[in-house]
Amino acid sequence: MNRRSTIPFGPQHPVLPEPIQLHLVMENEKIIQALPAVGYIHRGLEKIAEKKDYIQDVYLAERICGICSFMHSQNYCQGIEELMKVTVPDRAKYLRVIWAETHRIHSHLLILGLLADAFGFENLFMRLWKVREQILDIMEKTTGNRVILGVCAIGGVKRDITPELADYVLRQLESVEKQLPELCDSLLKDYSVRQRLIGVGVLPKDKAHELGAVGPVARASGLRMDLRERGYAAYGDLDFKMVTEEAGDCYARTTVRVKELYTSLELVRKAIQRMPQGPIAVPVKGTPPADEVLARIEQPRGELNFYIRGNGTRNLERFRVRTPTFANLPALLHQLTGCELADVPVIAICIDPCISCTER
Amino acid sequence: MLDNVSVITLDQIAAEVWLLKQDGYRFVTMTCCDEGEVHDVLYHFDKNYALKHLRVKVRKGESLPSISGIYFAALLVENEMKDLLGVSVSGMVIDFQGHFMLAEGAPKAPLNKSIPGIGIQVQEKTPAAAEGTVKS
C-alpha cells in the first residue's frame, strides 16, 4: 500500500550552502510533488537601489552575490552604459572578461567541490577547493580583494593589469590547468561517482526550454544557449566556443561545468594575450535618462537579467534583478518529481543554487 | 531603449503569450514597476538571443491574469510580484497567498513607491551616545 508523507528538505541541510526549503510530497520513497519555500534571506536590495544614487548602486549590485560578485557589477555597469550611451575603452572590455572568467572558474570549482561533498567524497571536495584558492589569489593580486573585487565602474574598470601581473596570472593558470585532469577524472570517471550522477535528475531538452532553464542546466540538456556568443564585452574577439551535453542528467551538468573550466582558462589566456593598450575607463557625466534597458550577461549559473529604468535624476526609478537560480527553480521542481529521496541532495546541488542572489 | 515592445491590454495577455510560446519563445521573466495609479508590467521573452517584450498597464485593484498555465516558469515571478508589489494575480497554478518571499507580519507590498524605504533609515542616537559618554 502506498503511504504518503510530506518531508521538509531544508532550510538548514548539510548539502545546502544557503537556506531554501523544499516541501517534498512523498509516496513511499518516491517524490510525487516538490514545492519551494524561499524568503529566508530576502534583503530588499531592489528597494535600496532606488534610494541610493546610480553610482552607489554599482557597489550594491556587486553585493547581490558573494560568488559571482564581479559579474553583477559588470552587468549593472553595462546596463547603465547602454542607458547613458557610454562607450567603454577596449582595454576595459578585456579586463572585464579576465575578471569575469576567473570568477566563473572559482564558481565552478566551488560547486564541483560542494557536489563532491554532497556524495561523500570529501577528499575530492578539499582538493578542488585547494585549486580554487589559486584563482582567489589571482583576484587578490590583481584587484586587492578575494571576493568582492570592487574594480568595475561605469565607463570601464578601476585597475589595470600590468605585464608583470599578467605573467603571474598566466603562471597561476598553468598551475591550475596541470592539477585539473586528475581531479576532473575523479569527477567524471570514478565508478561510484558515475553511479550517483548518471540518469539522475533528468531534464529533457524540450522541458528545459519550456521551464525557462538557463546556464549549465540548460546546456546539459542540449540547449545551445550562452550569452557570451553575443560577443558582449570582448567575447566577440576571443573565439568563444559553447559547451553542451545531451543527456540532461546530473552527470551531464557536471560535465558541462568541468569542460567550461577549460574554456574559461583559455578565454583568460587569450584576453591577456590580445588585450590592446589604452585607457581603462572614460569619465561619465550626467544622470541616467528616463528610459529603460534589460541588461544581460552569462553568469556561472546562467543568464543574469537586470531591468534598469532611469528617471533623469541620480536615483533609479526601478532596478529589478532576475538571477539564473531563480530561473532554474522550476526546472529543479521538475527534476525532483519522480526521483528517490536519496537523490535529492545531489539533484539540488547540481543546479548550483545561489539563494542569496535569488532572493536579493 | 527596449526594442520590440508590444503594448497590450489585460484581455489580450493569454492569447499573445500563447502565440509566443507556439512561436518557440522562452519565458525569461516579468518586471513590474509602481507608477502610482497603475502597475506597469513587462513580460520578457527570448528566442535565439532576440528579446520580445509585452507591456500591460494594470490599474491598482484590477486583477492580472496569470500566464503560469501557459508558462509554468512564470509561477514564481507572479507570486513574487504579488508579495513585493501587491499586484493581484488571478489563476496562478500555485498561489503562495502572499507568502512566497515575505514572512507572516512582514510589510505589505514593500516595493511600492508609497512605502518609503524600509530598513535603511538612520538609527537615532541614544541620549548617552549623543552626549559622547558611550565608547564605540
Give short descriptive properties of this protein.
heterodimer; A: 360 residues; alpha+beta; Cytochrome-c3 Hydrogenase, chain B; three-stranded antiparallel sheet; B: 136 residues; alpha/beta; Beta Polymerase, domain 2; four-stranded mixed sheet; two-stranded parallel ribbon; 28% strand; globular; disordered C terminus
Topology:
The complex is a heterodimer of chains A (about 350) and B (about 140).
Chain A: E1 4-9, E2 21-27, E3 30-37, H1 45-51, H2 56-62, H3 69-84, H4 90-118, H5 122-143, E4 152-153, E5 156-157, H6 163-189, H7 191-197, H8 205-210, H9 215-219, H10 250-274, E6 292-299, E7 302-310, E8 316-322, H11 324-336, H12 344-350, H13 355-359
Helix pairs in contact in A: 2-3, 3-4, 4-5, 4-10, 4-12, 5-6, 6-10
Chain B: E1 5-7, H1 13-22, E2 26-34, E3 38-47, E4 50-59, E5 63-65, H2 74-85, E6 88-90, H3 127-130
Parallel strand pairs in B: 1-4, 5-6
Antiparallel strand pairs in B: 2-3, 3-4
Spans where pLDDT lies below 50 across 5 or more residues of chain A: none
Number of helices in the DSSP assignment of chain B: 3
C-alpha termini separation of chain B = 49 Å
Content of β-strand of chain B: 25-35%
Oligomer designation: heterodimer
**What order do the helices and strands of chain B follow?**
EHEEEEHEH
The ordered H/E elements of chain A are EEEHHHHHEEHHHHHEEEHHH
Major beta sheet summary of chain B: 4 strands, mixed
| CATH homology superfamily name of chain B | NADH:ubiquinone oxidoreductase Nqo5 subunit
Going across the biggest sheet of chain A, name each strand in turn: 1-2-3
What name does the CATH topology of chain A carry?
Cytochrome-c3 Hydrogenase, chain B
Look up the CATH topology of chain B: Beta Polymerase, domain 2
The figure for the number of domains of chain A is 1
Structure annotation, total helices of chain A: 13
